[in-house]
Design goal:
The chain has 10 helices and no strands. By secondary structure, the chain is an all-alpha fold. The chain starts with a helix and ends with a helix.
Length: 312
């Protein structure tokens, strides 16, 4: 039940977070996917992407691919948090320890991330291509999947590599959370059940910033691999592997190109992780209450059914 409660809370938090921040995510992804052509960029900043949407009267196109992204986010968060909670409980049972150290946390979080990436990769690729297509030119989810089914797992290598991102983020969050709650216990003499919304937001922002700064070059390569179709005015073809993406960036933009869009990525990931952790912490308690109430109702119903059967 603990794993199911964590998974449900994580999925709900991911759904709300993705929807709230989706326009920012679209601008960020289109900006990251563009490679320097000659001596100029089409997009000099995120505002250029927004201006293009407004000028073409396709502001709502900033939400293209939202349904696919929400589906992918819902499944992704559920699978990740369920896998993490399950593997954490399994580790504690096998090791007979009361808590996990930093190393064990990293391994468990990475394993949960790998499970999530393998299962949701086709949806991740399709939603990214819908999002980075030209404004108003995005196909539906099924059309995108069926048209490029042989490319559905493009970027899987990058996704597996990036499992260290949520691993680092979740580990840093859990370690900071444990220390904060321990300080409260020493001061107040009792242990609070959950973090306050402010502290959950703050710890989520700090932990995700650390993970993003470390893994950003791979994040940009993944966006390029999964971007929409090649435009007519582009001088390069979409890379298929991380090595190809690294080579293109190095050739066209140099070392600094690996961190193009880092500000937008940090802003988006900080807000995303902070909202996710804040919502998850609050929804988790409500989920537990609901599940316990349902379990009691189901038990009482079963007892009533058995009593009726014995009387008959």
């Amino acid at each position: 039940m603990e794993a199911l409660a964590d998974a449900t809370a994580g999925a709900i938090g991911g759904l709300f977070t993705t929807t709230i921040l989706y326009p920012l995510d679209t601008c960020k992804s289109k900006y990251q996917a563009e490679l320097k052509a000659g001596n100029s960029y089409k997009y000099r900043s995120l505002l250029d992407v927004l201006r293009e949407a407004i000028a073409s009267k396709r502001v709502l196109a900033l939400y293209q691919g939202l349904g696919a992204k929400n589906l992918q986010s819902l499944l992704s968060q559920f699978i990740y948090f369920y896998s993490y909670s399950y593997l954490k409980r399994l580790y504690l049972q096998r090791s007979k320890n009361k808590s996990m150290g930093l190393g064990a946390n990293l391994v468990v979080a990475a394993a949960a991330g790998a499970c999530n990436s393998i299962v949701t990769q086709p949806l991740d690729t399709a939603s990214s291509r819908m999002q980075t297509s030209g404004f108003g030119k995005s196909k539906g989810l099924w059309a995108t999947l069926s048209a490029n089914w042989n490319e559905s797992f493009d970027g899987l290598g990058a996704s597996l590599f990036l499992t260290c991102n949520p691993a680092i983020q979740y580990t840093v969050f859990e370690q900071l959370k444990t220390r904060l709650l321990q300080q409260r216990v020493r001061k107040a003499g009792s242990s609070p059940l959950v973090l306050s919304a402010f502290h959950a937001f703050l710890l989520g922002a700090i932990s995700k910033t650390v993970a993003t700064l470390i893994t950003y070059p791979a994040i940009r390569c993944k966006v390029m691999i999964q971007s929409g179709d090649k435009k007519d005015d582009e001088e390069y073809s979409r890379p298929k592997r991380m090595v190809d993406a690294f080579t293109l960036i190095q050739k066209q933009e140099g070392i600094l190109g690996f961190y193009k869009g880092i500000q937008a990525q940090v802003l988006k990931t900080i807000l995303s992780a902070a909202f996710l952790m804040m919502i998850k912490e609050k929804v988790s308690r409500a989920t537990w209450v609901f599940m316990l109430a349902f379990q009691r109702w189901n038990s009482s119903r079963r007892r009533s059914f058995l009593l009726q059967g014995s009387k008959a």
